[in-house]
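Exercise 7. Given the encoded structure of a 91-residue chain, write a plausible sequence.
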């Protein structure tokens, strides 16, 4: 991102104060922490892995398909990993 001049910074701050006065909810939403695109995709991937794991494990049990059940179990055991790898927690 390019550096802003002092005047641009002042104008932006004034715009932010104006927005906060007119619509405090929107101002709070816009000034909140940024969510990175990779974190969103990692969460979606984890959710897809969870659902696919449940479905594959159920199909493997119902149809006695060992391969499907194994893949489903592996997905269920690892669905939490993509969000953890992308955005590790504190500590």
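Solution.
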């Amino acid at each position: 991102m390019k550096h802003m001049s002092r005047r641009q910074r002042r104008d932006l701050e004034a715009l932010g104060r104006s927005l906060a006065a007119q619509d405090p909810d929107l101002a709070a939403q816009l000034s909140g922490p940024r969510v990175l695109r990779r974190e969103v995709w990692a969460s979606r991937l984890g959710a897809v892995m969870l659902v696919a794991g449940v479905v594959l494990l159920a199909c493997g049990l119902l149809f006695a398909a060992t391969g499907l059940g194994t893949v489903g179990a592996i997905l269920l055991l690892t669905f939490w990993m993509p969000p953890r790898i992308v955005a590790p927690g504190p500590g």
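Remark. The mean pLDDT is 86. Students should compare their own answers with the one above.
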